[in-house]
Design a protein that fits this description.
Distance between the termini: 43 Å
Strand content: 5-15%
Number of domains: 1
Oligomer: single chain
Number of strands: 7
Number of helices: 12
Structural class: alpha/beta
Low-confidence stretches: none
CATH class: Alpha Beta
Order of helices and strands: EHHEHHEEHEEHHHEHHHH
Length: about 240
Amino acid sequence: MANDLHTLTIRGPGKNALGTPVMQDIIAQLRAAAGRPVLLTGDTGAFSAGLNLKEVAGFDGEGMLRFLNLLEEMVDVLFNYAGPTVAAVNGHAIAGGCILALCCDHRVATDDRSIRIGLNEVALGLEFPPRVMGVVRHRVPPRWIERVTLEAGLHDPRRALELGLIDAVAADAQAAGVEQLERLAAHPRGAYVATKRTLRTGATTVSADDQRYFEDRLVPAWCAPAVKDRVRALLGGRR
């Protein structure tokens, strides 16, 4: 199986931030993988620190709509990928980065207390787009989902494990991820894919009302001056 495995490495500036080219590359690699087992990990000691906030801060309404539609497409393609997927969370997995991990069938993080994992969108004044929220609802245990989303905290891997954001911690997330991916890929592929499809049916389906809300209310809210100010303040604090 090792020769069949596709390692998809998230590569981008700002700790592999999810900008337009990075998301386009992830979608293209997933489509090219065409059902092969996929190990998703991050480049140079990070998984993904979330969306590229420099892009977000500069968008007008049309640009933001294109960007969020691309995010939604990436989430849908990964979450519903017709094959086994494992996230080897080798560094920070924040906001959009955490969503990428949640899209995978299994998530293992490096056992390093300095790593932060979580969904901090609400702290920035951002609503979850509909497909993203569908993944969160499907993957985060009901007991913890309100704490994870409304408190908008960032957690070390052990706490993230307790909250259901990841499935395991390991000294070497990549090695442990490959081992788990080999176990998943050993099952008859047709049965695996069919069962996965059945379990996830409807999770990322968007109703006409939700789509109207997304376009008419949520996208403009992401462009609001107060949101842009919070994003720029966060960017300033990273310098």
